[in-house]
Write the structure tokens for this entry.
Amino acid sequence: MFQQYPPVFEIKRKFSRMNKQRIAIDMDEVMADTIQKFIDLYKSAHNIEITIPMMYGKEFRDVLPEELYNTTRKYINEPGFFRDIPVMPDSQRVIKELNEKYEVFVVSAAMEFPNSLIDKYHWLAEHFPFISWTHIIFCGLKIVNVDIFIDDRSRNFVDFDGRKLLYSSPHNLEIAEFERVNNWREVADKLL
């Protein structure tokens, strides 16, 4: 006689879609202040002073002297780079509140930098312990089935049909075609 095993039923129930809207949140330059990490790194390692206004509409590497242009990729690929990035102000509080109202997923294109996987996992566990490992997605392309997507890279919105919130970062300040949020207090105002 065939018997249904209760653990399978419980797993299906646990991972079935809740009656909450789903939000995908990017990590770098949204939850994690990667730019501040670069500013501090280049000041200590190369004695170069970079400011946010210098970066308006540009990638960080674009404001570096020519001889250092390719060094950002070198640093990003080093083990440990992503482990001690500062947390964006108010992100912990707001994401915790969002997590009570929505089903929250952290989505990071970590596959581009394989050494970042363990660093990002431990960083999330330390700073956002309320986000379950089942809701962390390390991927290449960000193809997600959610209702709301918060990201600093507009390219990730190309095939996304839900609500797009472009999180302000110096490189995207000239992009005007998406709903913009400048900080986590603005995210809270729009979504809580």
The longest helix spans residues 34-46. Confidence is low (pLDDT under 50) at residues 1-13. The helical segments are 6-15, 34-46, 71-76, 91-101, 116-127, 184-191.
